[in-house]
Design brief:
553 residues, alpha+beta, 9-stranded mixed sheet, binds adenosine-5'-diphosphate, binds magnesium ion, chaperone, nucleotide-binding
Amino acid sequence: EMSVEKHVFEADVAKLLHLMVHSVYSDKNVFLRELISNAADACEKLRYEAIVAPELLGSDPAARITLTLDEENGRLVVEDNGIGMSRDELVESLGTIARSGTRAFMERIEAAQGKDGAQLIGQFGVGFYSAFMVADNVDVVSRRAGSDKAWHWASDGKGSYTVSAVELADAPARGTRITLYLMEDAKTYTSRWTVERIVKDQSGHVPVPISIAEKPGAEPAQVADGTALWTKQKSEISKEDYTDFYRGVAGQYDEPALTIHFRAEGRHEYTALAFVPGSKPFDLFDPDRKGRMKLYVKRVFITDEAELLPRYLRFVRGLVDTADLPLNVSREMIQESPLLASIRKGLTNRVLTSIEKLAESEPESFATVWENFGSVIKEGLYEDFERRTQLLALSRFRTTVSDDGPRALSDYVKDMKDGQSAIYYLTGDNLAQLKASPQLEGFRARGIEVLLLTDPVDSFWVTTAPDFEGKPFKSITQGAADLAGIAKQGSETASSQASPTVAEFVSFAKATLGETVSDVRASDRLTESAVCLVAPEHGPDRQLQKMLQGAGR
Ligand code: ADP
Ligand code: MG
């Protein structure tokens, strides 16, 4: 006589499910990684809550994930003894799209369509709903730790789901049991050999042991021991192990561009395992996006909101594990702790030096990292004054001479012309538009390189970075261009002062334009065009003026 509530999926979930069900993506195995990673997360959340409420563990303290195969009925069951879900949590977590990343993913996949869309599914974790790639019905029975109620969620993935209370006898004592009613072409997921291989391949390093029962009621046998990868010696870890672990922690299915694994010893001790992703996450510029570095204390997951890295390194994924904090540390205490400051400093340095080394030893891999994350790293040029010089040296820029890839400032400075004292730049919305700018004429004529800056952050850092190797940054749209002292290419001498006719024109223009301009000057910046607008010497340059106007300031 227990009542069954029927709910309609949020519109975005319905769309996502439709994509899942009709996806032509061939590597459907990823659904198992997603379900196992959720099960492991649930065990970690319980471990954390049990620090202050040990009674939640009851008589069953050891975390575990069990897969039960049922070939006869074409079913696969994934069960954990983690935190479980209340009725409201079931509706919230499995009826809406909570992850901002998934929302961005949806937009991409809809824009991509067809085959590309399928590849996107393979590249990025899409969570619980991926179960519908292999199952035409999914049952979730869950009992939250410490609760005396259990709930049943069920759906065929076609727009709605039901929620009802179930007898405690029909639910796990604690945690979540997910039953997949496998589609005809997905029955292979009841094969012991297949499932064991997939688990070892893609989930061998989740920090909770995983067992497989060959049929309902059979004794489960362990296939992964739940040892934390980061506690092992580097020499014991293969590249595949790292990649596998990265995919779990990053929720991306690509290869990491950079793996950073080290143990800090001395006054503060901790282990860090961090990755620079091989491709761009969708939510990189989402203002709500949280950092993706997890903090563990003695292998217990504590929080992913400890801000272990500055915002401009928010693309780095991974974790830090330390024994130097008490397990029952509150999240507020963490923020204040000197250990955290020390970790943040040490980790930031390691990440930056690793990227620097990559730039030296593997310029092509570095180019990809810069392409993906350069616009984020550049935020550090105005957010992290202490490391500004280091970040400027790491930065690469398109310039008027950079046809074979972006250039380093050290190269720019090396190639400066005789008499040139500044690093010149031009900011704007896109490269083609910048390259066509008449402001460049005088610089081209003299063979002077100009940085072409098209990222929105560029307009901001250039105003706060005073110089590089003693050379100030100077917008070519601002003030006098000071080109008179530098010889034009193909001519021996520097250009002479403005002729009398030009002087006459200047006074005519001043008189005519009156208050609408602050000055009219003869300039060496043009060679073909007759006139152009420039911004005053001090204050925002032309692009920043436009951006500020656009922002209603
Ligand atoms: P994500 O794991 O990135 O949050 P998912 O789609 O995989 O996204 O899962 C959505 C949410 O459903 C999780 O955040 C969690 O709150 C809940 N959930 C899924 N599986 C479980 C589980 N086995 N135990 C407890 N909660 C779960
Ligand atoms: Mg998940």
